[in-house]
Design a protein that fits this description.
about 800 residues; five-stranded mixed beta sheet; five-stranded antiparallel beta sheet; about 40% helix; elongated
């Protein structure tokens, strides 16, 4: 058989095999679908029972203190199809499923269109699920992302579409869909949000309700950021116009109409914490699943800490806000060992008419000020820098663009010269921190920021200004950073929910450990040691500042953003990490001087003192002392160079310079950090050509300028450049031995001549290292009587002749005599 025939036969067999496999797979899928379809319950029976399902309850960590009921007191008013205004019906169709009346329950075109629009607009404003699918998923199924659940959703959707008309399905949906805060159906939603019946809603209000359906917690009008809801409403109005449901004029009138909302009336404890938990639950399980299954949600909240935090926030707000001109406070506390969120107050008053429900802790992006500095120094320690490493706190232009300058200053406008890293961090000095960021590397700091959970920081965009408050972070992420230091470098992401139990107290879900090492234990312990050392920070903050927590050893860091827009204070021990933010929601500046140590630290101080008494405290583990051979890593800012000098020529000693004329002098070298340190390998030898670094000359000029003004001794000047030319090989005396012998009476006969370039000073004769004679002429012809104890030596003698000139040039000759 030819090769072509063999290939053709093999190809035919492969086709047949593929057909058989495809047929088998299709058979299995059809069987599973058929079996699943007939096992699904009758939608009519489910629909009739939807209104009688049991809600879920949210508890604190003990499972005893009830915080909130999810649909525990369901607000639902059923209305007929005639009572639902057509404009509301159209708004919801435009928002959720504009092909509702044309598809058979599943819209392939809608899915593809949503994917394309979301990709094009880089947003997620459109979803692909139909109204029927949403109704099925939220009320008949869970939100678990499995193939079996998706198959059930498709089949039950098909079943529902066969049993009911489109208008009936839409009627079910509009009477059952949740709008947040235990509110179900459009009638109850209209009453809750606008204090009117659904039939009285106008276009603007209808588009608002349509916007809420997608995510009631996110788009709630009682959240701080109303732009979320407004953008969603505008999108829906634009869709309605595009679909021909309304005119352009109607769209514009509704878009710019001022909508008045009713005041919320919600029974809830720890509201910001609870509402965040609700949002997490909705994202994970879906709204309907939680509202009908009677679940018991055990959270991480320590209710005693929560009550204390809320009371302290009211106390400090009332005491300080008028003096310092701020309108909000937020606080969060985390267990570093587990990630459990123990306390969370998102703003001073959840029920405040303006901005109250906004959760600063989890939603607010604010400039961190100096509170970000430990991230930078921890990155440095990972590279091999030490707490004693010298950084020069001197006025420096960091701009490499010759047409611009960037000359940051410290908070107190002073410069301190050379300081150790541990001093710079504890005292929150700005100039050393900028140098630390440059040495650490923007890329490295950016990578560590992402690993710690500070996803919002764009280090490359902010550049060196990061250490002065550039960028923006959430309070919970910032406290999470410090919790990593408290936990020896191991990150536990924040956890809000510990367990979910069904109505028979069976565990249906439980939080799982998710530890990740971010920093080494050594680097984390160094940070903890520095920030808990009251003596280190005292020169700036004083001996008895609010950063000193009574009775406990607590690491504390404050921060203040530019123009006093944000004040921060974070404290941590191995058992708890807590953070306080104070500022204005609209980003207005507070009164000048409203820094973190003055207005945020007092609240942190009281909270930490209570928390540690309640939870218990542990001491930080010490870091291993670091030994290096580099002076700048060991806390010295200059290099002491030792020089050996010839006292006669006053020139540098050589190998021929005798000890008698040698003395040691020293001189000091002072240079910038980049002269002595390789950025990425600080413990290696200094860079061969440091000037290749673009920042080198800027730093070097600033350091030399400081040293010239402030250093009292000469530096960078070698006292002597030339080498000793008096003591050379040619300058040594020349010894000529004509005769060395012992006569019969064992007397030593010497016949020696010395030729000296310089005036001869002395010639010494040694027998077995014992001086037996000294001579001062250039010719020696003598007979020496040896001491008695040497005369008894029958083995022979070692004779050494040493001759010196007046400059201590020395010649030596040795012989053995028998």
């Amino acid at each position: 058989m030819s090769s072509n025939n063999i290939i053709r036969a093999l190809f035919i067999k492969l086709i047949k095999l593929g057909v058989l496999i495809g047929f088998a797979v299709a058979t299995v899928v059809i069987y599973i679908a058929y079996k699943t379809y007939h096992e699904l319950p009758d939608p009519a029976k489910i629909i009739n029972s939807v209104g009688f399902q049991q809600g879920s309850q949210i508890y604190d960590r003990t499972g005893k203190t009830l915080l909130y009921k999810i649909a525990g007191d369901i607000k639902r008013t059923f209305i007929s199809e005639k009572e639902i205004p057509n404009i509301l019906r159209l708004a919801i169709i435009a928002a959720e499923d504009d092909q509702f009346y044309t598809h058979k329950g599943i819209s392939i075109k809608g899915v593809l269109r949503a994917l394309w629009h979301n990709f094009r607009d880089l947003s997620f404003s459109e979803g692909g699920s139909t109204i029927t699918q949403q109704f099925v998923r939220n009320y008949f199924l869970t939100r678990e992302k499995t193939l079996s659940r998706k198959l059930k959703e498709i089949l039950l959707t098909y079943k529902l579409e066969r049993q009911y008309t489109k208008d009936e399905i839409l009627h079910f949906y509009l009477n059952q869909i949740p709008f947040g805060s235990n509110v179900y159906g459009v009638e109850e939603a209209a009453r809750f949000y606008f204090s009117k019946s659904a039939g009285d809603l106008n276009l603007a209000e209808s588009s608002i309700l349509a916007a809420l359906i997608k995510a009631p917690s996110t788009y709630s009008p009682y959240n701080y950021n109303p732009q979320n809801l407004k953008k969603r409403q505008e999108y829906i109005l634009q869709r309605m116009e595009a679909l021909g449901f309304i005119t352009k004029k109607e769209r514009e009138e509704a878009q710019y109409q001022t909508v008045v909302f009713s005041k919320p009336n919600i029974v809830i404890k720890a509201p910001h914490f609870v509402m965040h938990v609700v949002q997490l639950l909705e994202e994970k399980f879906g709204k309907g699943f939680l509202e009908k299954n009677g679940l018991k949600i055990i959270t991480t909240l320590d209710f005693s800490l929560q009550q204390t935090a809320e009371d302290l926030i009211i106390k400090h707000f009332d005491r300080l806000h008028q003096e310092w001109k701020f309108d909000n406070i937020a606080l969060v506390a985390i267990d570093p060992k587990s990630g459990d969120v123990l306390s969370l107050v998102g703003s001073k008053n959840y029920f405040a008419e303006k901005d109250g429900a906004f959760n600063v802790v989890t939603q607010g992006l604010r400039q961190p000020g100096s509170s970000i500095k430990p991230l930078i120094y921890a990155t440095l320690f990972e590279k091999g820098y030490t707490p004693e490493t010298i950084l020069f706190d001197v006025k420096t232009n960091f701009s490499t663009d010759p047409t611009k300058t960037y000359i940051p200053q410290n908070y107190d406008l002073k410069e301190r010269g050379p300081v150790m890293i541990k001093e710079a961090l504890a005292q929150s000095l700005n100039i050393p921190a900028i140098k630390a960021l440059y040495l650490a590397g923007l890329d490295n700091v950016g990578r560590y920021a992402k690993r710690t959970g500070l996803e919002s920081l764009d280090v490359q965009k902010t550049g060196l200004s990061l250490v002065l408050g550039g960028g923006a972070v959430r309070l919970i992420d910032l406290v999470g950073l410090y919790a990593i230091f408290a936990n020896d470098g191991i990150k536990n992401p924040p956890i809000f929910i510990k367990q979910i139990l069904d109505n028979a107290n069976n565990v249906v879900w439980e939080a799982q450990p998710n530890e990740n090492r971010v920093f080494s234990a050594q680097s984390s312990r160094i940070i903890s040691s520095i920030l808990s050392d009251n003596n280190l920070r005292a020169p700036i903050f004083g001996e008895n500042s609010y950063l000193k927590i009574p009775n406990f050893n607590v690491a504390v860091k404050t921060g203040t953003s530019q123009d006093f827009r944000d004040a921060w204070a974070i404290g941590f021990t191995p058992t708890v990490a807590a953070g306080v933010w104070i500022g204005n929601n609209n980003y207005d500046s507070m009164k000048p001087g409203a820094d973190g140590s003055k207005i945020a630290a007092p609240l942190l101080n009281e909270f930490m003192n209570f928390a540690l008494k309640t939870i218990g405290s542990e001491e930080f583990l010490p870091y291993t002392p670091i030994e290096t051979k580099k002076f700048i890593l060991n806390g010295l800012f200059f290099k002491e160079n030792l020089l050996k000098i010839d006292t006669i020529s006053n020139k540098l000693a050589t190998e021929f310079t005798p000890p008698e004329t040698t003395k040691t002098l020293s001189y000091k070298e002072i240079h910038s950090e980049l002269y002595w340190l390789k950025k990425d390998a600080p413990q290696d030898d200094p860079p061969i050509n440091p000037s290749t670094d673009p920042q080198f000359q800027l730093w070097e000029d600033a350091v030399i300028d400081w040293a010239t003004k402030n250093f009292k001794e000469p530096f960078n000047i070698k006292p002597v450049e030339e080498y000793d030319d008096i003591h050379t090989l040619d300058s040594r005396p020349q010894i000529t031995i004509h005769n060395i012998s012992l006569n019969q009476n064992r007397f030593l006969n010497l016949d020696v001549s010395i030729n000296a370039k310089n005036k001869l000073k002395e010639t010494n004769i040694f027998v077995d290292d014992e001086l037996v004679g000294s001579f001062y002429s250039s010719s020696i012809n003598e007979t020496l009587t040896l001491p008695d104890h040497l005369l008894n030596n029958n083995k022979g003698f070692s004779i050494k002749i040493e001759s010196y000139d007046i400059y201590f040039n020395k010649a030596v000759e040795e012989r053995l005599v028998f």
